[in-house]
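In the current project phase, the collection of sequences with tokenised folds has grown. One resulting record follows, to show the layout:
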Amino acid sequence: MTLAPKTRYDGVAMIIHWLTAVLMIYMVFFGEDLMKSGETLAKAGDTANATFEPSIHVTLGVSILLLTLLRIFWRVTHTAPAYPASMKRYEVVASKSLHGLFYILLIAIPLTGWITFGGFSEEVPAMAQAQLFGLFAMPQPPFTGEWAKELHELGSNAAMILIGLHVLAALKHQFIDKDGIFGRMLPW
């Protein structure tokens, strides 16, 4: 008796994917606003409220990093469904490349954000009290650098582009190719 080939991701992979997607989309479009709001309040002297939105930013960033590490572990220990036979070789290579770049960015953006946060806390001392998961102050990095801010912003911009490409590719497979790729990550 042979097992039928796996055609969908399992529930854990789907949950990790969609949680990460929602958090990442929110962060690339609104994450900078969260930090600017805190900076504005701190400079206006409202240090009591200045760390609320930056705390959301750092908590979501760390959540994305933790979800990504869990996702990598899950992916290594659980096989992904095979690509449809109808996919062209360049599509498979593009898909694997895009996913590899996502993994790199989903680790690099939070790490460069953490390094950037150290410099931000030096400029706006109230930010040193930003809370991680509402439990404790965000640990300050051992070093800071303007380069990290540039990389953090570059990574966020690259993530916006990759998210757009990923969505367009999913829609192409759903509505043009009709090959079931989109359904592999849907719970229904």
User: Anything to note?
Assistant: Residues 89-123 form the longest helix (35 residues).
